[in-house]
Write a structure and sequence with these properties.
Two copies of one chain form a homodimer. The first copy, chain A, is built from 16 helices and seven strands. By secondary structure, the first copy, chain A, is an alpha/beta fold. Chain A folds into two domains: 233 residues, 3-Layer(aba) Sandwich (Rossmann fold), CATH 3.40.50.620; 82 residues, Tyrosyl-Transfer RNA Synthetase, CATH 1.10.240. In chain A, helix 11 links the parallel strand 6 and strand 7. In chain A, helix 6 runs antiparallel to helix 10. Chains A and B meet through helix 6, helix 8 and helix 10 of A and helix 6, helix 8 and helix 10 of B.
Chain lengths: 365, 365
């Protein structure tokens, strides 16, 4: 097999998830679902229980996809990856469920509910729809503003988890952590209640760091079998996109990310000053080539801007061979970024009305 | 002042509540509200914040009364006292709010929600209405089956209480205790939300053992002032009616209580074998008289069956003087009990339909 320069195969820090915690590699489904860039390139690298989702997709049987958004800070290119995944699942036929975790953002980050509501619409739903989510085929709710069976499920789930189990995941406990954990379990499981879809395979696309929550929710689902009929929720796990300066891409650090509502000129500047995989001197780089694996700019090609693997390979090899220097490469990326944002922000304008409608669709106020 | 044999003045075990915890004696309102037997006889002996309720009643201004029922076991004569109090408040003009704590009974006592629902209707609501509650002027809900603003309030309140504060009341914590405490706070405070009455004096008639919960809820109300406009809830405190064998009257011990749906002959038998304040021998009793203060039978006269103070005084003095023996006295009480239950159970039949309607009135299922 030819070496794929565009495929991430090093799971590094994530190794333990497979060996200690029983996550399964996504490898086996990669060819079948290679139409999603993140799967094709090994960015989605693990799963739990995906076999039932695969069977549902292949058999054209009903299944659900649930995602939660934290209505805090701006929607950036890390979030775009999740959005692309949920849109992909929706197009594969998933009944689409989207939670705004406004109770969690209030209890854990002190964000007032009205502010969370605004952020959910402006930053999340507007971008989801602009990126291609069909709002007419999605169920959306705020944790603070929903229906009785959802709250009942969260409250009943409280009996199925011990303090020790929670401490293993959350460290020292607080009311806020407990309430947030139970709401998250209800977010994921309630689509399977008789008032919604009934028992149904459900998939949650998440970052690998979310696995403890997924495991807890699967345990809760299994233990609730005295009262509810629930499939254990499946999950797909992706690696994170690193930030512009290396390290974590974070909503709370504007230097680490570019928001999808960011002024295109400002985004351009951020790309131009991003950390690259370049060498100490131009001479050295011409001789040794750059290191795209360590380059924040290359990650934008890999995750977002270059869908054709051949084109990506070309960029990769230009870098590796030392035939392009970082300045020119960043300029190319900045052009792509600017074009993308200008186009996307037009779509955002069109999406805004639908986003507001979706936000209100389950509001009981 | 003449000595009132029918007035309980010994607050004994409750003394600390006044001196350490700042509960106030109800004495000052006793004359004004002597139409309620429990107030007139000192059974309602303490309060917090009743001044605002007094002002509302006197000024014919709006106020709310909230009560919670634990849908577990049978509705007995201890519960009847609470029911009489809430009916009295309703007749004084209170907006009447009644919670069935089915989430608490599930989490803390393992009672399945459908069973709790049945108990709430059969045992509680049916008896409330048969005793005189006007269901058309009452708001009723199950903790498991209500509206978003209620759940939101409970969740937001989670941020206002520390583990240490909860531990001081509940001992070692569990998810169940935390969820139950927060639900109880929302039960008491949500009538004041803009979606309900708006900010309004609210009174909760409870047993003296509930004071820690009242204090916690008052603290939560005060701390929530950044988001909600809430009067600190007021409370009236009654002493407990002792059980048939002395000690606690308990739903879970049929020998300690008589249920209001109990077969009248069975109730008669329980009265005939109740613990009295009689002496060791008939002779001794004729000489020294009985001790009504220690008599479970006398408590039925005092709390429930003899509303006229003169009649009660006569019974008290007959006992004290040794002119009536326990057998005859119990027979008299058993006759009253039988007559009461026969009459009450007819009213229960008539009340059943309204009770079912009330139970469903806020159901979102």
């Amino acid at each position: 097999m030819e070496f794929d320069p565009w495929t991430i195969t090093d799971i590094g820090d994530y190794e333990d998830l497979f060996h200690k915690f029983g996550m399964e590699p996504f490898e086996k489904y990669k060819a079948r679902y290679s139409d999603l860039r993140y799967i094709r390139r090994g960015i989605v690298f693990g799963h739990r229980g995906f076999d039932k989702i695969d069977a549902a997709i292949q058999g054209k049987k009903p299944f659900a996809m649930m995602t939660g958004l934290m209505p805090s800070g701006r929607f950036h290119f890390g979030h775009k990856m999740v959005a692309d995944e949920i849109i992909w699942f929706q197009r594969k036929g998933a009944r689409t469920y989207i939670a705004a975790a406004d109770i969690e953002s209030y209890l854990m980050r002190n964000i007032p509910l009205p502010e969370a509501r605004k952020t959910a619409v402006e930053e999340y739903l507007t971008n989801y729809i602009a990126l291609g989510l069909d709002p007419k085929k999605a169920t959306f709710w705020f944790q603070s503003d929903y229906v009785a069976p959802y709250y009942r499920l969260a409250d009943v789930a409280a009996k199925e988890v011990t303090f020790n189990e929670m401490k293993a995941i959350y460290g020292d406990l607080s009311n806020g952590k407990i309430i947030s954990a139970l709401k998250q379990a209800a977010d994921i499981l309630h689509p399977q209640l008789p008032e919604f879809e009934g028992m149904m395979p459900t998939v949650v696309p998440v970052g690998a760091d979310q696995d403890p929550h997924i495991r807890l929710t699967r345990d809760i689902a299994a233990r609730l079998n005295h009262t509810y009929k629930l499939e254990l929720p499946a999950a797909t796990f992706h690696r994170f996109m690193e930030g512009l300066q290396g390290g974590k891409m974070s909503s709370s650090d504007p230097k680490s990310h570019i928001a999808l509502s960011e002024e295109p000129k400002s985004a351009r500047k951020k790309i131009m000053s991003a950390t690259t995989g370049g060498r100490a001197t131009l001479e050295e780089q011409k001789k040794l080539g750059g290191i795209p694996e360590n380059c924040a700019v290359y990650k934008f090609y890999l995750y977002h801007f270059v869908d054709d693997d051949k084109d990506l390979k070309k960029i990769y090899e230009e870098c590796k061979s030392g035939s392009i220097m970082c300045g020119d490469c960043k300029k190319r990326c900045a052009d792509m970024m600017e074009a993308f944002l200008i186009e996307h922000q037009k779509k955002r304008e069109k999406a805004r009305g639908d986003a507001i409608k979706l936000a209100e669709s389950n509001s009981k106020k």
